[in-house]
Amino acid sequence: MRKYIVAGNWKMNSTLQEGMGLAQSLSEMLKDKTPQCDVVIGVPFTHLASIVDAIDTSRIGVASQNIADKASGAFTGEVSAAMVASTGAKYAIIGHSERRTYYHETSSTLKAKVELALANGLTPIFCIGEVLAEREADTHFEVVETQLNEALFDLSAGDFSRLVIAYEPVWAIGTGKTATAAQAQEMHAFIRRVISAKYGKEIAGNTSILYGGSCNAGNAKELFANPDVDGGLIGGASLSVANFLPIIEAF
């Protein structure tokens, strides 16, 4: 059955102490509530173990923002999927547009990361999406389909069914341009059709597809009302309980 999910991505923000305070405040605010969605927070590597120990992880899932594309070895500074899993985190964000853009992560790299995440019991939140030039060239559907095909479509149906997909219209993040709820639904429906063509209607229907394009308290309800939008991957708004909670409550 498809899950609704609101996942926060803190990016490179907060010291350990600040992050602990934010996570504990969110946990306290949700203590007496029954959200209609799963809640996940993607925190810096330095925070993972401490935050897992400090909150009720049956109510808030914890994600790393990345993992290495190698299992172990002489890769100074890298953090493996096994290391992340050992902290008690249950998710890993993979292929975020910032990783693709700034660190030149390729489909083959991301494919390896997904496989390692799954092998270590982590749920990948796999990000896809087009940049402004691709949207303006009207190649956005082709770009997204290629990203899915190259990184994910060698997975077995069983393994694919363990993934969460996050669509990021990169052209609508920090550019002054805005993606409408209708544009979000159009792409999410397309993604579900592509998945259906590969893995069948049942798996496509059960795949959670999150929207990652400047979702906030003001537009979350409209976005989440779309039949193929199953929640959001939230950036800046997840750094404040006051801003994040209304998005959680938008379902």
Summarize the structure.
Helix content is 43%, strand content 15%.
Features:
251 residues, alpha/beta, 8-stranded parallel β-sheet, 8 strands, 43% helix
Structural account:
- The protein is an alpha/beta fold.
- It has helices at residues 16-30, 48-54, 81-86, 97-102, 107-119, 132-136, 140-152, 157-160, 181-199, 201-206, 220-224, 241-248, and strands spanning 5-9, 38-43, 60-64, 91-94, 123-128, 164-167, 209-211, 231-234.
- It has an eight-stranded parallel sheet with strand order 7-6-5-4-3-2-1-8.
- Helix 3 links the parallel strand 3 (60-64) and strand 4 (91-94).
- Helix 5 (107-119) packs across helix 7 (140-152) and helix 7 (140-152) packs across helix 9 (181-199).
- The protein is globular.
- The model has no long low-confidence stretch (mean pLDDT 96).
User: What is the number of helices?
Assistant: 12
Kindly name the structural category.
Answer: alpha/beta
**Care to count the β-strands?**
8
The Cα radius of gyration reads 17 Å
Strand percentage: 5-15%
Question: Percentage of helical residues?
Answer: 40-55%
Separation of the first and last Cα atoms = 17 Å
Strands ordered across the widest β-sheet: 7-6-5-4-3-2-1-8
Largest sheet properties: 8 strands, parallel
What sort of overall outline do the alpha carbons produce when their principal axes are compared?
A: globular
Unreliable parts: none
Order of helices and strands: EHEHEHEHHEHHHEHHEHEH
Mean pLDDT: 96
